[in-house]
Amino acid sequence: MPIYEQGYRPYEARGPLRQIRFWPITREALRLLLAKRAFLGLLAISWLPFVGFVIFIYGVTQFREAAERILPVDARLFGQFFLWQMLFSLLLTTFGAAGLIANDLRSGGILVYLSRPLTRRDYVIGKLCVPLALNLSITLVPGLLLYGVGLALAPDHLLKASLAWIAPAIAVYSFVMALSFSLLALAVSALSRSARVAGLGFVALVAGLEIVRVVLDAGFGRPEARLLSPRSNVEVLDSVIFGLGQHGDVPWAWSAGVLVVTGLLCLAILRSRVRAVEVVR
Questions:
Q1: CA distance readout (Å), 137 to 43, 89, 98, 100, 230
Q2: At what angle do helices 37-45 and 23-34 cross, to 10 degrees?
Q3: Residue among 125, 135, 97 nearest 271 (CA)
Q4: Tens of pLDDT, residues 86-106
Q5: Residue 280 has what pLDDT?
Q6: pTM of this structure
Q7: Label partner for 132 (CA 20 to 30 A): which of 3, 187, 247, 263?
Q8: How far apart are CA 113 and CA 104, in angstroms?
Q9: For residue 192, which phi and psi values (nearest 5 degrees)?
């Protein structure tokens, strides 16, 4: 009988799995992170502001006049809530994303990933979903729960047609904040082979640019310096969306544009660093 030559045939996933090939990467990274008790503790602490704001809303129903002098129960309450969550978002991003790519670069695991039926896009999306999931778990989830609690406890304040936009705004802002910090952390992680160095680099970048912003703004009267700080740009969108009125004289569109450009630069870094072959110099 004839014998036919068979060359290399790449593995093709089943149809329903081809669009979610990144999921095992995300699942395994989350499993390793959530297996650490210290990280679970940080995740639990991140929900403390939610508890505090629930207590505040309940206090409004009992002592309405006194509580409303502190913070009215309207869109501004959610803006203040996200300002608190931003600190925990940065902490979770630092500990959760610092080693995602750096460890693979150090161990050569990235070559193993890309030698499988995975594209560079699958790898980046799989890693990006890890900090996104962590951030949304402390922004989107408690934000929507807080809105539901507000509707239940203080319907006179929030159950209005004019405030129906708050829930979509919570979803949009949560995703913007999560995506901005996640892309930046992954780009820093891709520039190092050490998770510790990547974590310190991310903290130094965010904190350092924020310090520069404060010095230039407060010391030299340069409000446009806030465009240098990723944290400040995210805060500007918070102020605009939820009506806090704390974004100063800089148009909010500039901050949004800076975040978009920063995200594109981070994607360019990931594109150059995530490759199937290792370049030895």
A1: 9, 10, 18, 18, 21
A2: 90
A3: 125
A4: 999 999 999 999 889 998 888
A5: 45
A6: 0.87
A7: 247
A8: 9
A9: -135, 160
Tokens of 60: 């409004």
Nearest C-alpha neighbor of 44 from the set 137, 182, 132, 114: 137
Predicted local distance difference test score (pLDDT) of residue 158: 84
Distance CA 224, CA 212 (A): 12
Asked if residue 143 lies in contact with residue 53, where contact means CB atoms within 8 angstroms, the answer is: no
Residues 233 and 259 sit within 8 Å (Cβ to Cβ): yes
Q: Kindly report, residue by residue over 121-141, the tens digit of the pLDDT.
A: 889 999 999 999 999 999 999
CA pair distance 206, 117, nearest whole angstrom: 36
So what's the pLDDT on residue 179? 96
Low-confidence spans in the chain with pLDDT less than 50? 16, 279-281
Give the angle subtended at the CA of 103 by the CAs of 117 and 35, to the nearest 5°.
90
Question: Phi first, then psi: what are they for 150, rounded to 5°?
Answer: -65, -40
- Which tokens is 188 given? 């820093």
CB 93 within 8 A of CB 134: yes
Write down the domain spans for the chain.
45-273
In one-letter notation, the amino acid at residue 256 is A
**Amino acid of residue 70:** I
Tokens of 2: 């004839």
Contact 211, 226 (CB under 8 A): no
Burial category of 30 from C-beta neighbours within 10 Å (exposed 0-12, middle 13-18, buried 19 and up): middle
- Predicted local confidence at residue 6, as pLDDT: 54
